[in-house]
Amino acid sequence: LPFLFFFFSRSSAKFVAPLGCLGSRQKHTLPDLPYDYAALEPHINAEIMQLHHSKHHATYVNNLNVVEEKYKEALAKGDVTAQVSLQPALKFNGGGHINHSIFWTNLSPNGGGEPKGELMEAIKRDFGSFANFKEKLTAVSVGVQGSGWGWLGYNKEQGRLQIAACANQDPLQGTTGLIPLLGIDVWEHAYYLQYKNVRPDYLKAIWNVINWENVSSRFATCKK
């Protein structure tokens, strides 16, 4: 398999590999949210959350299962042309599943504020201050052309935090090598029903529901 993806399991707080051996794999399923659809109001309303989770994310999961079956068949036949032709759909739907599985755990009705401990110290070291980090990640996310994601990632080789943007559903680790810590979805389906075309207002609001405990846990895990 040409793509090795990782997503975050909120139940175990560890990285797990959903795209493993296609010959014996179980089908991917839509993860439950750790809160109700209305729990993030007024910052993200229930209608957005319901559509985003039960429709958009569910579509990525369903399509990923279909494309993996086709890929399995292509592998069995030794059909390299078919394998290559399926890679964009595998990347898009696999990335959509990975990204959203991380995104839901990055949010919490008890979120907001600032991180603590090692993560806060790393942010200060790599960005100067939390305010600078917040400003930079917001600017990168606002600046995504079309659909995509703004990310805080960890560069394991360099031992530092980095900010990056990814287009469409490109997964951060598979695209840049950075380990994803905090992802902000800036596809219009993540905010349009509430914030219309004013993406900066959505990005201002989302900081009120960032689950820093989860992000800190991911940071501690990836450093091991």
Describe this structure in words.
This protein is α+β, with helices and mostly antiparallel strands. The protein has two domains: 61 residues, Orthogonal Bundle (Helix Hairpins); 107 residues, Iron/manganese superoxide dismutase, C-terminal domain (minor pseudopilin epsh fold), CATH 3.55.40. Helix content is 49%, strand content 13%. The protein has a three-stranded antiparallel β-sheet with strand order 4-3-5. The chain has a two-stranded antiparallel ribbon with strand order 1-2. The protein starts with 6 loop residues before the first strand and ends with a helix. The N terminus is likely disordered.
Return the CATH class of the largest domain.
Answer: Alpha Beta
Task: Choose one word for the global shape.
Answer: globular
* Approximate helicity band: 40-55%
- Element pattern in H and E: EEHHHHEEHEHHH
| CATH architecture assignment of the largest domain | 3-Layer(bab) Sandwich
Number of strands: 5
List the total number of helices. Answer: 8
CATH superfamily of the largest domain: Iron/manganese superoxide dismutase, C-terminal domain
Alpha-beta classification? alpha+beta
Beta-strand residue fraction: 5-15%
Q: Strand order of the main beta sheet, please?
A: 4-3-5
CATH level 3 topology of the largest domain: minor pseudopilin epsh fold
What profile does the largest beta sheet have?
3 strands, antiparallel
Function: Destroys superoxide anion radicals which are normally produced within the cells and which are toxic to biological systems.
GO cellular component, one term: mitochondrial matrix
Binding site for Mn(2+): 52, 100, 185, 189
Domain Manganese/iron superoxide dismutase N-terminal: 27-108
